Amino acid sequence: MLNIALFGPPGAGKGTQSEYLIRKFKLFYISTGDILRKELAAETKLGLDAKNIIAKGGLVSDEIIVQIIEKTIRSNPDVNGFLFDGFPRTFVQAYILEGLMIKLNTKLDFLISIEVSEEESIKRLLNRGKTSGRLDDNEEVIRNRLKEYNDKTLPVLNFFKERGICVPVNGLQGIEKVTTDIEQIINKEQSKKLLNMVIFGYPGSGRGSLGKAIAEKYNLEFVATGDMLDNEIKDNTEVGKMINELYESGQLVPDEIVIRLLEKKIENSKNVKGFIFKGYPRTLVQSYILDGMLKKHGSSVNKVFEIDVDTLELIRRLDKRSQTDAAMPYDSSTEKIVQRLEEHKTKTIPVIEKYKEMHDVTVIDGQDTFDVVLARLSAEIESSFKNLR
Fold first, then answer.
1. CA–CA gap between residue 29 and residue 38 (Å, rounded)
2. pTM of the shown model
3. Where do the domains of the chain lie, and which CATH numbers do they carry?
């Protein structure tokens, strides 16, 4: 997801650039004035609350505005991101937007400030006034608008400068050059973003094979904790010796060891677009660990998939697998297979429920052939991450 706030004094050309960015990057345009008018027209609860305030000559509160913005964002889960125009307009609203983005498990990627001198703004708006017929395009009103912009909005720029995401663009250039500069800023940011996916599914759902195929197709790093543990044993590392001892004594490998291996995997993976995690997180605790680990690296889980396969089909597949070299220890009997499925239900389903609260978990029908299911999964990924195509 790409979230941008576009700033600039009156006459900077925000409207022209907004139209281009919305088309180019398929962003949803959020103007507080526009979305407020929609709520008023629809006579929603928030709209009626705002209408009562306006009728009494008051200003619509930040509390109502932020609820309308949150409603707008939640109502458009399939867009590539959002372009904020006219919000945040004050220092307080900057904090509000930051908090809202955290609540929605996302962030403002940057604030683009189109910089134009006061005299240039006045010149442009006076020229516009010759043809626009707008009553506010006269010098007195323009200077008042610029003063209000400087008094209220410049502190917002400083707020985001402190967070390192305020990017200035020279607005004195031609329109096309300003557009090119903004596009370069966005492309640079997108190239740094990791696309991190978690793939869930009961044993036998095919999540391992599907995860590997998706990783290869989209240049993602496939991360399976079981494979990492086995590799440590195979390489006879000190960690591998500890893991082997735990296996032999029938103990589970503690999160402390797994975390270190995951950290190592993430840090050593170069030139990948992101990671696809299979077999981790298995528990609620591990889900919090993964979120914290990715945040440490300036990233997060972007997409969660659940491969859905009927229980009888799972048992049939696992029984068939037990007769091959790919057999797992729990494939040796129907009783053990059922026990493993129950364990998944007890431990992993709560993790999926947690992610449903934070992300839009996409359920993929896994009943068909591998190629058909892979095509379904690929279609969902390409729909979510347009820049993968």
1. 13
2. 0.58
3. 2-27+79-192 (3.40.50.300), 196-219+273-388 (3.40.50.300)
∠ CA 181-382-81, nearest 5°, is: 45
SS3 content of the chain, % helix, strand, coil (to 5): 60, 15, 25
What span, in angstroms and rounded, lies between the C-alpha atoms of 284 and 289? 9
Where do we find the tokens 């978690």? 198
Segment 1-23 shows an average pLDDT of: 90
User: Which residues sit opposite 304 in a β-bridge?
Assistant: 198
> Strand 275-278 and strand 2-7: pairing?
unpaired
Q: Answer for the pair 114, 14: CB distance below 8 angstroms, yes or no.
A: yes
- How many angstroms separate the CA atoms of 215 and 197, rounded? 10
Three-state DSSP class for 102?
helix
Q: Which of 208, 340, 307, 328 is nearest to 320 (CA)?
A: 328
Q: Which two tokens stand for residue 278?
A: 């299979």
Band (130; pLDDT cuts 50, 70, 90):
confident
Contacts of 147 (CB under 8 A, 6+ apart): none
Q: Which two tokens stand for residue 262?
A: 């995951």
The Cα–Cα gap between 156 and 347 comes to: 45
Nearest to 145 by CA among 37, 8, 17: 8
Residue 222: phi, psi to the nearest 5? -80, 125
Other Cβ atoms closer than 10 A to 73: 20
Q: Could you tell me whether strands 81-85 and 28-31 are parallel, antiparallel, or unpaired per DSSP bridges?
A: parallel
> How far apart, in Å, are the Cα atoms of 18 and each of 13, 27, 82, 221, 308?
9, 9, 11, 35, 41
Q: Give residue 137's pLDDT band: very low, low, confident or very high (50, 70, 90).
A: low
